[in-house]
From TrEMBL:
One of its GO terms (molecular function) is DNA binding. Pfam families: DDE_Tnp_IS240. This is Transposase. Involved in the transposition of the insertion sequence. Keywords: DNA recombination, DNA-binding, Transposition. Signal peptide: none annotated.
Length: 232
DNA sequence: CGATCCTATCGGAAGACACT
DNA sequence: AGTGTCTTCCGATAGGATCG
């Protein structure tokens, strides 16, 4: 039996949800969020914002993901894989991403190296959660080929930079955040952030197809209404 | 009521960046 | 080089929420 996640909290779930959404969805610093809330008469410190997103981020992400997996808002027809450099305290790390062909971010994973072992771990993690895709699109990094040989689905790999824009586009929000934060401090917080941000991106990503304004507004309201139910 | 949990906060640390 | 201003991170703890 799961206990009430808001137990002992002195602030209402509504405000906590709003705060967490502001911080993760938009490129704002902890203090930016503090000041924005202050403008609305809500008095908390930036440390509280940090505390809340660390506590509730994984929780919200989990329930968004669960819902999407159950309703299959993703497609495993083709996955696009990509990795991007992220500097943590001066050291290079790699953030791997799997994106489906509609732009849904499936998995985000941080590693220290960019070798076969890392690619393998990442692929296994994604497939455990979503099953096997029919096609996998990657860039030319040899680690993918090696990893896929080991898994046994080498045949469905396609390579090509232009094919892989889908995955590369999804790194943009992270880059913006990175700039605001002046780099991430620890692997743990990057992993947490990337995973959570992917979930939120999927949840609020309303322009996967071209909507008319009315449809867009309906969809946005629906997304917000669902958000307000999280962990309720 | 007192005991116990644990949120929310505080002050300081350390790093990145821009500027002089 | 130093200074100022921004960022997140961390250990300690006051005091509010909850339970028996």
């Amino acid at each position: 039996m799961m206990r009430n996640p808001f137990k002992y909290f002195k602030t209402s779930p509504e405000i906590i949800r709003l705060t967490v959404m502001m911080y993760v969805r938009f490129p704002l610093s902890l203090r930016n969020v503090e000041d924005l809330l202050h403008e609305r008469g809500i008095d908390i410190t930036h440390e509280t914002v940090r505390f809340w997103w660390n506590r509730f981020g994984p929780l919200f992400a989990k329930s968004i993901r669960k819902r999407r997996v159950e309703n299959r808002f993703y497609s495993n027809w083709a996955w696009h894989l990509d990795e991007v450099f992220v500097r943590i305290n001066g050291e290079l790390h790699y953030l791997w991403r799997a994106v489906d062909h509609e732009g849904e971010v499936l998995e985000a994973y941080v590693t220290k190296r960019r070798d076969r072992k890392a690619a393998l771990k990442f692929l296994r993690k994604a497939m455990k959660r979503y099953g096997r895709p029919e096609a996998i699109v990657t860039d030319k990094l040899p680690s993918y080929k090696a990893a896929m040989r080991e898994i046994g689905n080498k045949d469905c790999q396609e390579t090509g930079r232009w094919l892989n824009n889908r995955a590369e586009n999804s790194h943009q929000p992270l880059r913006r955040r990175e700039k605001v934060m002046s780099r991430f401090r620890s692997m743990r917080s990057l992993q947490k952030f990337a995973a959570f941000q992917s979930s939120i991106h999927n949840h609020f990503n309303l322009e996967r197809h071209f909507y008319r304004r009315e449809e867009f507004k309906e969809n946005r309201s629906a997304a917000l209404a669902e958000w307000r139910q999280l962990a309720a």
